[in-house]
Amino acid sequence: MTLCAFERHTKALIVDAKTPTAATFYQHFGFSELPGYPGRWLLPRAQFAA
After folding, report:
1. 3-class DSSP state for residue 34?
2. Which of 7, 17, 24, 44 is within CB 3.0–4.6 Å of 49 for a Cys-Cys bond?
3. Domain-embedded: residue 27
4. Predicted structure pTM score
Protein backbone atom coordinates (compact mmCIF):
# COMPACT_ATOMS: atom_id res chain seq x y z
CA MET A 1 0.00 0.00 0.00
CA THR A 2 1.40 3.38 -0.93
CA LEU A 3 1.19 6.42 1.32
CA CYS A 4 -1.30 7.98 -1.10
CA ALA A 5 -3.63 4.99 -0.75
CA PHE A 6 -3.22 5.15 3.02
CA GLU A 7 -4.18 8.83 3.04
CA ARG A 8 -7.19 8.27 0.78
CA HIS A 9 -8.71 5.45 2.82
CA THR A 10 -7.83 6.40 6.38
CA LYS A 11 -10.31 8.47 8.40
CA ALA A 12 -8.23 8.82 11.55
CA LEU A 13 -5.25 7.45 13.44
CA ILE A 14 -5.98 5.87 16.80
CA VAL A 15 -3.27 5.04 19.31
CA ASP A 16 -3.11 3.74 22.87
CA ALA A 17 -0.89 5.77 25.18
CA LYS A 18 0.68 3.29 27.58
CA THR A 19 2.15 5.94 29.91
CA PRO A 20 1.38 9.53 30.89
CA THR A 21 4.52 10.57 29.01
CA ALA A 22 3.17 8.93 25.85
CA ALA A 23 -0.18 10.70 26.32
CA THR A 24 1.62 14.05 26.55
CA PHE A 25 3.54 13.21 23.38
CA TYR A 26 0.37 12.43 21.42
CA GLN A 27 -1.44 15.49 22.76
CA HIS A 28 1.50 17.67 21.68
CA PHE A 29 1.04 16.45 18.10
CA GLY A 30 -2.70 17.19 17.99
CA PHE A 31 -4.26 13.92 19.14
CA SER A 32 -7.42 14.15 21.30
CA GLU A 33 -8.33 11.60 23.95
CA LEU A 34 -11.41 9.61 22.98
CA PRO A 35 -14.30 10.16 25.41
CA GLY A 36 -15.04 7.00 27.38
CA TYR A 37 -11.70 5.37 26.43
CA PRO A 38 -8.99 6.55 28.81
CA GLY A 39 -5.56 6.31 27.23
CA ARG A 40 -6.89 6.02 23.67
CA TRP A 41 -6.05 8.97 21.43
CA LEU A 42 -7.38 10.00 18.01
CA LEU A 43 -5.93 12.17 15.26
CA PRO A 44 -8.55 13.09 12.63
CA ARG A 45 -7.60 12.76 8.97
CA ALA A 46 -7.71 16.54 8.53
CA GLN A 47 -4.74 16.80 10.89
CA PHE A 48 -2.38 14.52 8.95
CA ALA A 49 -3.54 14.67 5.31
CA ALA A 50 -3.34 17.73 3.13
Report:
1. coil
2. 7
3. yes
4. 0.74
